[in-house]
């Protein structure tokens, strides 16, 4: 791979997307009753076709889910210096995530209060002033309007600051919320217990990759919520991850013994062991945190299971297992002793999902000296590519005239049912 750019954007051929879209378009004029679809959803079964293909359902997803729930935006280590910012595009809105002089992080809608022009057009940068390119209205990093021209004497600039979105930063992870009310970020304690030693806030982005999958966003999340497919589709993942054996009656006892020995070892290292388990159950209604041991002797999510970068944070040893976190609707994380891999999921339209994959290492780690980018990303990138192929195949299939929902495995796909039940409850609620 050679020396890699820290930020790569790739979009697959549109041929597959066009093929799916042609099928989806046959549904565009269909008359559907959204309330009936949600109300009649059969528990324990996959969703009906319109949930994956219909523009009206996509609009409802944006209104009831992505405009109301906490969304993962990025990493605090991406914007370390006051004025550093990056943009997030979600649910038809552009948002500026920016570091303040007091080291806090704010989120503003990227919309000038004059006549609505975008203010920031570059995806990331540093700005001591946010200047609208249209009429040069200028905002301080805290969103206050500090310069304007040709307005009447009674114009009150204080009333025309940038509009804000809610933001919560925990363990170096930035979450945003577009709703008007002030929501509680319930996973705070669980995230700190899981990731407090990881040092994400003091990390650096070693590599990112952004790509589109021609599929509805729910197919991406559903695929991530089960490992039924792992032995056949993720052979390298199954080779190092012990918890892929958790449902095997012949191996479950060995998994339990390994969990207990890991718990004792990690407790002696000062690692929080309250979340050591090999299931993928959610702690709360919309988040999950757990730590699980690798198969011995592996210590990191790499192709050979070995450490490939300096230890992160305050970990005293490489054998600290694999910390995992998820939040509905758009985030998951796998953290090893030496790096963290995060995935951000943002719908583009009913049939397209944009993924941003990031790899974080210790801030003092030097590329080509302390770590090799290719070795760092190879394992997770392989898994991501394997998942993308699966999801595209499923997207084509659910668009078929012969698609009918099938039943979930109560043993292997209970986590998919958990997500779908959460999702449909969001659609049923106006709160």
Describe, in short, the structure shown:
With 431 residues, the chain is an alpha+beta fold. The protein folds into 2 domains: 7-11 and 200-428, Naphthalene 1,2-dioxygenase Alpha Subunit, Chain A, domain 1 (Alpha-Beta Complex), CATH 3.90.380; 71-184, Rieske Iron-sulfur Protein, CATH 2.102.10. It contains 11 helices and 17 strands.
Give the CATH H-level superfamily of the largest domain.
Naphthalene 1,2-dioxygenase Alpha Subunit, Chain A, domain 1
Q: How many structural domains does the protein architecture include?
A: 2
- Written as H for each helix and E for each strand, in order along the chain, the element string is EHHHHEEEEEEEEEEHEHHHHEEEEEHH
Helix content: 25-40%
Number of helices: 11
| Rg measurement, Å | 22 Å
Alpha-beta classification: alpha+beta
Number of DSSP-assigned strands: 17
Strand content: 15-25%
Walk across the major sheet and give the strand order.
1-12-17-16-15-14-13
Shape: globular
Assign the CATH architecture of the largest domain.
Alpha-Beta Complex
CATH topology of the largest domain: Naphthalene 1,2-dioxygenase Alpha Subunit, Chain A, domain 1
What is the terminal-to-terminal distance? 48 Å
Averaging pLDDT over every residue, what do you get? 93
CATH class of the largest domain: Alpha Beta
Weakly predicted, low-confidence segments: 1-5, 22-29
Major sheet: 7 strands, mixed
């Amino acid at each position: 791979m050679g020396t890699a750019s820290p930020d790569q954007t790739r979009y697959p051929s549109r041929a597959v997307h066009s093929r799916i879209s042609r099928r989806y378009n046959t549904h565009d004029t269909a008359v559907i009753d959204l309330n009936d679809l949600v109300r009649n959803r059969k528990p324990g079964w996959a969703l009906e076709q319109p949930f994956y293909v219909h523009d009206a359902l996509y609009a409802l997803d944006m209104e009831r889910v992505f405009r109301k729930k906490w969304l993962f935006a990025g990493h605090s280590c991406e914007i370390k210096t006051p004025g550093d910012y990056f943009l997030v595009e979600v649910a038809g809105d552009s948002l500026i995530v920016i570091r303040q002089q007091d080291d806090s992080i704010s989120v503003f809608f990227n919309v000038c209060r004059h006549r609505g022009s975008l203010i920031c057009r570059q995806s990331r940068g540093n700005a001591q002033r946010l200047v609208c390119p249209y009429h040069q209205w200028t905002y301080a990093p805290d969103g206050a309007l500090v310069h304007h021209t040709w307005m009447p004497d009674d114009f009150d600039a204080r009333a025309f600051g940038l509009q804000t979105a809610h933001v919560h930063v925990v363990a170096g992870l930035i979450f945003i919320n577009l709703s008007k009310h002030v929501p509680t970020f319930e996973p705070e304690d669980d995230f700190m217990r899981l990731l407090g030693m990881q040092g994400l806030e003091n990390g650096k982005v070693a590599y990112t990759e952004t790509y589109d999958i021609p599929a509805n966003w729910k197919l991406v999340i559903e695929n991530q919520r089960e490992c039924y497919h792992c032995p056949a589709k993720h052979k390298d993942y199954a080779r190092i991850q012990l918890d892929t054996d958790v449902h095997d009656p012949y191996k479950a006892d060995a998994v339990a013994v390994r969990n207990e020995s890991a718990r004792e070892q990690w407790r002696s290292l000062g690692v929080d062991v309250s979340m050591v388990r090999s299931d993928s159950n959610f702690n709360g209604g919309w988040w999950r945190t757990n730590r699980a041991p690798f198969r011995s002797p592996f210590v990191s999510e790499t192709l050979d299971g070995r450490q490939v970068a300096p230890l992160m944070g305050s970990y005293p040893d490489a054998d600290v297992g694999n910390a995992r976190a998820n939040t509905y609707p758009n985030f998951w994380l796998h953290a090893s002793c030496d790096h963290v891999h995060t995935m951000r999921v943002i719908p583009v339209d009913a049939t397209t999902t944009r993924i941003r994959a990031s790899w974080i290492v210790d801030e003092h780690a030097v590329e080509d000296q302390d770590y090799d980018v290719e070795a760092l990303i190879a394992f997770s990138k392989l898994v991501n590519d394997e998942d993308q192929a699966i999801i595209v195949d499923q997207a084509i299939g659910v668009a078929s005239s012969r698609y009918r929902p099938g039943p979930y495995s109560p043993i292997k796909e209970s986590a998919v049912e958990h997500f779908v039940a959460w999702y449909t409850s969001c659609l049923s609620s106006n709160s």
